[in-house]
Amino acid sequence: MTNTGARPPEGSRRGDILRQVAGELGALRRDVDRTSGLVREHGGLLAEALPRLDTLTSDVAKLRGTVAALTAEAEEEDERQAADLAARRAVGMAPEPPGPWAWPILDHDTATAAWDSLARWVGEVFCAWYAPTRGELPDCWPLHRRAVLELTWLRQTHVDAHARHAPGHLAAEWHGRWLPAALAGVAAAIDPEHCPAGRHLIDPRDRTRRVTTSERDRSAAEPATPERWQPHLCAAVEADVATRPAQNSGSSS
């Protein structure tokens, strides 16, 4: 009786295994060859990229240094501008409230701020540095609207001419053109017969209040100082802001 389930000879089975192993080793060798090729290719790319990466790292470091320096410079500039603004605000040279001012339409708060800036500029800059006399700047100038307007635009042009980075010719033009023009405007606004130095709107015919020519000339030659016109300023501000609306969204300028 024939045995159909007989196992194949041992040598035949070993040959099949060896052939299978040989095939797998061949496939593995091909994979290794491909991997080696990729490694060599990527190694070349990496070798090319490394110097570029070093250069990029150096560039990034330089860029960080530049950014840090620019940031520090910007912070220093902000501090300088803040200090400059504080110094200008202290003497009424800051553009606050924004100008030029349209006095007829200013609201209560804006007019109060405008009076404060104008008074500080007249006292700390105009009187302190340009030394007008009481004849050129009568004590009662705050009580004369035209004189206030003349000094307002004189202040504004002074602020513009002495702003940061303003061209130098603006300051020269202010000294040579606008200062004499404003003083002429103040002189036209205030009649020395009615407002001699230290007086306001007197009747020249009133002998009890009349001053002699020599007295008027002597007083007119004295320097104008905030102490002389401060009482008139207080009266002018009080009368002016009392008539203004509490808020006016259209007030600007």
Molecular structure report:
18% of the residues are buried. It is built from 6 helices and no strands. The chain has helices at 10-90, 108-130, 145-161, 168-189, 213-220, 226-241. Helices cover 66% and strands 0% of the residues. The protein is mainly α and 253 residues long. The termini are far apart. Keywords: Coiled coil.
Summarize the structure.
This protein is mainly alpha-helical. Helix content is 66%, strand content 0%.
Ends: how far apart? 125 Å
Strand segment tally: 0
In DSSP terms (H or I, runs of 4 or more residues), the helix count works out at 6
Tertiary shape: rod-shaped
Task: Provide the residue-averaged pLDDT.
Answer: 86
Class inferred from helices and paired strands: mainly alpha
What is the helical fraction, as a range of percent?
55-70%
Uncertain residue segments: none
Radius of gyration: 45 Å
Strand % is: under 5%
SSE sequence, one letter per element: HHHHHH
Oligomer: single chain
For the biggest sheet, the summary is:
none
Biased composition (Basic and acidic residues): 197-206
Region (Disordered): 197-232
Coiled coil: 53-80
Protein name: DUF4913 domain-containing protein
